[in-house]
Sequence to fold (494 residues):
Amino acid sequence: MVRLTSVSVAALSVTWLGAGVAMADVTAQQVWDAWRTQYVDFGYQVSVGAEEAVDDGLVIRDLKLLTTDADSTLEMTVPELSFTNEDGAVNVTMSPEMHGQVKGPADHTDPMALDMVMRQSDGTVRVSGTPDAMQHDFSFPQVVVDLHGTEDNGATSVPLKATVQMQQIDGSYLMSEGTLRHVVSNMRADTFTVVSTGADPETGEVFNLSGEIHGVVASSDAMIPSQLDPATRDLSQVLNEGANMQMKLGYDRAALRIEGNSGDGDAVLETDVTDGALDFNMMRERMTYQGSVGQTNVAVSGPELPMPLSLTFDTLSGLMDMPIAKSDDGQAFAVKLGLQGLEISEQIWAMFDPAENLPRDPATLVLDLSGKVKTAYDLFSTESLNAALPPITPEQLTINDLTVQAAGASLHGTGDLGFASGVQMPVGTIELELTGANALADNLVAMGLLPQDQAMFGRMMLGLYAKQTGDDALETEIEFGEDGSISANGQRIQ
Fold:
């Protein structure tokens, strides 16, 4: 079953940072009642050590939250929550330190657990609105989460430690109650950093990881069923009840460094990115991912490499838009991938082309596909996960753009293919244009990477299955027949 544990954890985390349910009065008791109801609706068991009414509000002590599914158990402890009435709104403060633990299945051969300590100071949360539509505005100068891997019995196991730190988090969160909860959120964090160390208990290989993201922004707009217990319902059921989500993430720049030591020396991977963005949409019928990163630099070094290596690219982008609901009719899909301005370091070039036979022009890869597919099941249902055959079958495929440019050669293609029910071979045509192939072959021969006889054989095949359209320029049409035949440039291949 596809569980919603990540949704539950996210809901809890946002609540820590000021989540809840724009303007009439709310009281401390109403805010706490709403929070408690939401915890239960998200599948948590809630226990409170003490609930004390004070002159200007309410104090909750020793709050414990527990949720369990087939894969893990999450337990959180909040020593104190204070709800203070002020001018028709409620100010919420919480303990500077909170604790949690995630445990794996008890019947696992090596049951593991992850201890968490969350620290914050001077955080402010102000709740306003109505009992059915509570607006939370929050600001936290700093939030630090320490993670430490342990065995289920508390003894130290695989040594894993990590610290996640967020600086200056500001945002808002509105939850409107109804048959479906309407949740709208916005958040910005100046910096997000992570530092982690660990080791393989069998080999002794150690690693160190450090990363940072600057200018993080996030927003979401979702409709969520009021009862959302991840232990009893899969994602498909929730979507069929009307759930949907739109989410946007972005950042200004990011960097990552990973160091590993296997005893033979240190291996290092470093990367930095100027900007990135991710859009995600999900509803009952469809799911869409769209993401991109800007100028990126990657460097790798290690004892198994002859020298440090590096590469850069200008942009990397992708799109996946696909149906996720069962349908006997073909439904539209789209897949896109783009890599622009890829350049490798001179050290890499020198390994196989020291004489500089090949052009050093930046490489480009573009893939743009669309078409129709049939879905035999709801993709996130238990039935789909247990199916013997793939839940998706193609019906029609259009190659809108296939472009590969590298080493002075360029390949461009388009096409349109159809797939009959129960037939694996498509019917249709693909049109290809190739430039610079002869020059590339000559360069590879000069470099000693391609034997002369193989280059001659390749030219002969191109002459047979393609036609010349210019200086070192060819084109061909590949046709897939209804009888299973394949031909190129009118010449039968199969």
Notes: DSSP finds seven helices and 28 strands in the chain. Helices lie at 5-16, 28-41, 235-240, 346-352, 382-385, 437-447, 452-465. Residues 310 and 345 are 5 Å apart (CA to CA). The two ends are 44 Å apart (CA to CA).
